[in-house]
Amino acid sequence: MSEPSHVEGIAQMSKLEGKVAVVTGASKGIGAAIAKALAKDGAAVVVNYASSKAGADAVVAAIIEAGGRAVAVQADVSKAEQAKGLIDAAAQQFGRLDVLVNNSGVYEFAAIEEVTEEHYRRLFDINVLGALLATRAAARHLGEGGSIINISSVVTDVNMPTSSVYTGTKAALNGISGVLANELAPRKIRVNTVSPGYVVTEGTHTAGIAGSEMEAGLVAQTPLGRAGQPDDIARVVAFLASDDARWVTGEVINASGGVR
Fold this sequence. Notes:
about 260 residues, alpha/beta, 7-stranded parallel beta sheet, 9 helices, 7 strands, Sc_DH/Rdtase_CS, SDR_fam, oxidoreductase, NAD(P)-bd_dom_sf, 3-oxoacyl-[acyl-carrier-protein] reductase FabG
């Protein structure tokens, strides 16, 4: 008897069938990969973007072409009304909400002599306040089995020079995740954190890191010996979103190739 064939595509992947997910900051990079991975596993996905409509539309088009369901919704999650509008749009479009991935974030490095109020507030507003506001809005819709996944960074472990504010935002996010895991546990809503290491994205290309000596140094420090790819992070997130992770909450999972 021949082995059954395995056809690639959304129809063959059903771990998230019937679920609805919101991914913030999903127009490119890690967020885009997460949106596609959740859709591949069967979820209907709201692809959030702040400014890159073209990028979000391209992600939605790729998901639909593969047989999935997705819509793009513009919102600056650091603004309370817009964060609420994003979550409400998911419920209105697909009738429910099961998964929230707080991926929106900015990374800017500055030596301590160059840290400004503007730099601090921009990073904390988007990286921390945005996650809080989106989670506050989502908590009204999430029921038993709901999953919240916050995207942090391995910088909280490595103490990288010139990253004091950025590292501070991710350390805050880690702490908030732990609190919310306990706070929402009575409602059977899980909260976990994924901390990527160095990942090649559009942002690293724009910043001149990809292909540079800095990238070579980061890879040299990575035990698995390569740079991360967006899908390396997306598959971890998809696991945490699914019922396979039903007994996992309050965890910080490093997806860093061994960097710690």
